[in-house]
């Protein structure tokens, strides 16, 4: 049991929830974890062995149905997911955590309500606040617990979000370095990304948004 949360691996009494997962990015291992406090299932995809002296290349990716499944251009989530899997495949080993934290933690229903407000002129942060919701309510305690369970203590983290780094460090994960992940920038999401940089502290250079 992780020290960070009431996490347990989802498994039958005799059949662990763990299997090979061939993908276009390589053959990963998929493992499912249940967060007992929410009932959500979270996924770890790993390639290669996770133990070693070098930091593990890790992406902590929050679920985005519209971007990941429907290829929405309103965000950069789908391109980030694919780029992270490509990076892990190119390196030959690494881990992607897929967390059930839709809409930066507000859920799909509220996220689409926020989209409607954005259609009317609000930015991505104000839209959440206008709904009486946090701009970003994600807690990465579950991610730290999953990494602990996978025996990953030292990571090279694929992210532009300093809050993700800070939280993982707070929960006992050593973040050796930040690996930028700026992909999928376009006319439909440029203002969204500019808001994340200007108002939410994400680390993206101005020329990367041009």
Helix count from the secondary structure assignment = 7
Shape: globular
Indicate the proportion of strand residues.
15-25%
- The CATH class of the largest domain, by name, is Alpha Beta
- As a percent range, the share of helical residues equals 25-40%
The domain count comes to 2
Mind telling me which CATH architecture of the largest domain this is? 3-Layer(aba) Sandwich
Describe this structure in words.
This protein has helices spanning 65-69, 77-91, 108-119, 124-130, 141-149, 162-170, 190-200; strands at 7-9, 18-23, 26-35, 40-47, 56-62, 94-99, 154-158, 174-179. With 210 residues, the protein is of the alpha/beta class. Strands 1, 2, 3, 4, 5, 6, 7 and 8 form an 8-stranded mixed beta sheet that branches. The chain is globular, with a radius of gyration of 17 Å.
Give a brief rundown of this model.
This protein has seven helices and eight strands; from the N terminus they run E-E-E-E-E-H-H-E-H-H-H-E-H-E-H.
